[in-house]
Amino acid sequence: MNLAETLGLSPRPYRILTIDGGGVRGIIPVLWIERLERYLNGPVHAHCDLIAGTSIGAILGCGFAMGMTATQAREMWLNGAHVAFSKPHSMKERGRRIAARAGLMAKYESAGLEELLRSIFHDCRMGDLTPPTLALSYDIQSLQVHVFSSAKEEHKSLPVWEVCRASTAAPLFWDPHLMAVDDTGVKHPMADGGMTANNPVVLAISESVSHAKGTGKAIQLDNVVVASFGTGAPPEGHSQIPKTIFGHGSMIMRALMTGATGTDHVTARTMLPARNYWRFQTSIAGRLAPLDQTENIDELQAVSTATFPDGFFLLNRQLV
Fold this sequence. Notes:
The chain is of the alpha/beta class and about 325 residues long. The protein is about 40% helix and about 15% strand.
């Protein structure tokens, strides 16, 4: 029993913020977090003990942990999405789109995405992030989720831009990112963490408990508070990813990403008391489902603004 419990006081909650992957749809949680920051009267990272994200969620989460406000994140993604998902301007780029339709190569060159990530994070390293931050990727060599953690010694020196590049390397969109994931120097081909954990909430809860054990501090699940932000839920059956002329790759990716998000939400809901788990999500039209259609951003913002979820005020009480 700790001192707080001895005195009959409740210990301070261990507060986790998680953000799903979702490409351009990342603008939805950004606007919600921007509103949450108004309730908190300050940046969200100052009210969190752990931040976790997948793909665009990793970019946003690392941005917040670097000191970015939600307003700054909104401006970053409104401009950055057009860089990451740039339209073809040359015969070479148009040829790439044709090859992508056949499933022969990625739809986008990596240069635009890497340019964007370098401009956001510069020389920032994982160890510079506060609070501890997780970014999920998928090692296609070992066929398992890889959790980059700013709290792990072997990850502290990794460039944040490169970790986010690994987390956003969605198959059919970009080529896998070849990088050393620890101090062994061995390079692994890394792909989007959304392949198996588009919603990072369960891994975030697990990592928080594991990290606490390593420090000798016990974290009880009853004391964990999670704010989990989705990027919009399209109608069942609507594709979020590029379709190949054969369709097989698209169907597999859709099943992996959709199944992972739904399963993790259900699991987290059973792990934590209802009062401690806050899932912010909204339904979106099928036409807004694609992850790379930048022309949808204005409508996605309108959907986000019109459907602010209930619970921000009550959540605010648990975060401050």
